[in-house]
Fold each of these.
Amino acid sequence: MTSEKKTVSETLYEEAEKIIPGGVNSPVRACGAVGATPRFVKSGQGARIYDEDGRGYIDMCGSWGPLIFGHCPPTVVKAVTEAAKLGATFGAPTKAETTLATLINKHYPSMEMIRLVSSGTEAAMSAIRLARGVTGRDKIVKFQGCYHGHADSLLVAAGSGLTTYSVPSSLGVPADLAKLTVTCPYNDPVSLEEIFKLAGREIACVIVEPVAGNMGLVPPEPGFLEAIADLCQKNGALFVCDEVITGFRVGLGGAQALHNLKPDLTVLGKIIGGGLPLAAFGGRRDYMELLSPLGGVYQAGTLSGNPLAVAAGCAAIGRLETENPYGRLRHMASELARGFGERAERHRLPVRVNQLESMATVFFTDRKVTDLASAQTSDLKLYAAWWRGMLEKGVWLPPSQFETFFVSTGLLFSEVEDVLDAADLVFADLAKTR
Ligand SMILES: *Cc1c(COP(=O)(O)O)cnc(C)c1O
């Protein structure tokens, strides 16, 4: 028996596995959920990425959200290159940090004061610490299926009911800490009201993805976000909007502008770094003034407000302001969503497509997807087979059913057609083998 020759990616993966756990620096990249091994990426340009074997793909993952202009947008490349010539990091304040904070504040007026950090995890973790510091309360509420980074308090799963304690969803998270996080189904204001009835005076904050992107795309139902804001206000808890994905994605002003919300605290990341590691949290001035060095809530970072990341962020936001690409992005995403739905139906495959602005998910279920429980009715084997088929045809989708794909301005309308043609062929194959 002759074994097939290994691809460059397969060889690189074997080498990586020897020194990096699972061969990856973030678990979903391992492609385990879709029964594959990762393709190692060499470069990207516009909406295309190229692997180490020289194969090209239409990139519908966009590094999980940051790349709204696709790869290597010239304005961002130029800004980063010029910043690098001046020095990578100083550990002292720079002018551009105020410029970026001011830019963010212009579009997110609820963020009266802003602190820059390096990752969404850090920003969400810090916002929660601040909420606890502001209120003097320990409990927090999060929604099942929402992701806010991997801080201990946020890696919890629901207990068997609203009244039972949450349990850690990762080894290494103390059960005593998990107990302080109450989980609630997404799009379920009645359960949230119940939680406030039971524990209202102990709850420091409710944190939510205003459009959920981490159980696949699940938009908020009418009134859901408003109900959260209202319950928080009535119970003296802070309303924390995690706009790490939605910020500058669903529009310049994020979901809070679309829904006319004024969160107490907001968390941003992904797009605001233009592809470099940058995130931010901010909100009401009197709350933010409780942060060190002004107040008693400690928070710090050696590379916070890093000059290269800040330069990239300013360039990306500047370009979003001048180009305002949201109409075109929405148009392409809705063409894709409609096209996927029609083609799946033609081949009698159970598919529901959720789409909002330039984000969408193809769920392999016949149920309407409004929360984690309905998302979990999806046929994961079918998604995995679809993902592998699409990759073979040159379309790079997120390697998990519970993720969102993103459209970038690098994508052409002709490529939308190419993606839909590929989907038609792959759906046909799936229908045959079912
Ligand atoms: C990606 C993400 C985070 C975490 O950001 P990292 O930069 O990966 O730490 C937090 N919240 C949401 C909604 C996200 O999508």
Amino acid sequence: MTGLINYIFKLLFLLYAGSAVSITPVVLWHGMGDSCCNPLSLGTIKTIIDRTFPGIYVKSLKIGSTIIEDMENGFFLNVNHQVDLVCNQLAADPELKDGYNAIGFSQGGQFLRAVAQRCPSPRMLNLISIGGQHQGVYGLPDCSYIKHPLCNYIRKLLNYGAYVGWVQNTLVQAEYWHDPLDEEKYRSSSIFLADINNERNVNQTYVQNLLKLNNLVLVMFNNDTIVQPKETEWFGFFEPGQDKKLYRMQDSVLYREDRIGLRKLDQQGRLKLLAVDGNHLQFSEEWFVNEILHKFCGS
Ligand SMILES: *[C@@H]1O[C@H](CO)[C@@H](O)[C@H](O)[C@H]1NC(C)=O
Ligand SMILES: *[C@@H]1O[C@H](CO)[C@@H](O)[C@H](O)[C@H]1NC(C)=O
């Protein structure tokens, strides 16, 4: 009898342990002015994920060796270099060897897309972009929202010239600055966004790698006053030559020519467009748990 009970306990334990370790790990990339571990932002997100899937492995990316450095690098470390650093971090982490789901917040959304396109190993299963700027931005950051002294300095630099060589190479936000009044300059000078969006030429490796995702999930905030235009969160943008009229993703060259694989993902039902009422990154825990974690991170 005790033998049987022991056996049942052992079985239950194995089942429990088995289910705990089989939850796919999650990798998070924070937004501008934020860090890996801020208790008010990604710290809370990590806690929610831990609570939803006990035992899950969550890696909140830290770019640099300290939290201060991590935050500063979000402004001043060349994004291409950041992506390289992250690719190395992910490849070196044995917990991720069987794949992971990725959630990017704000600029972390487009940075993780670069990781998906450039670094297929370990495999990213689902990419969830929460308020990411996939066609870039055309509008100075709102420093009443990003309450950091560096923010005003960044406004000055972008105003001075986002495509000026040294600004482009040192200022992260210049690297996804998309000027609809000068598309040619954007295409030729943007060292990050124009590259991952295959604007200069079509890098087939990027297409093949993006198509390896199970799902690309793009969340847009309906009342976003921080990101200009908010439609960039769904690959929409200003029509060339002006900054009022917008095109939708489906009407973009990127989609019509399928330059990065978006149209194929869409046709196969693997492109998910979600809209949330609220300003930038304003979402409820309930929404995050039900619409993101349970739908895309729960296996
Ligand atoms: C395409 O992207 C891959 C992955 O980043 C890179 O190694 C390769 O050099 C790129 N090819 C071209 C033609 O830019
Ligand atoms: C947010 O945007 C949605 C969709 O455009 C709109 O229906 C809603 O009224 C807006 N909410 C606020 C508070 O402005």
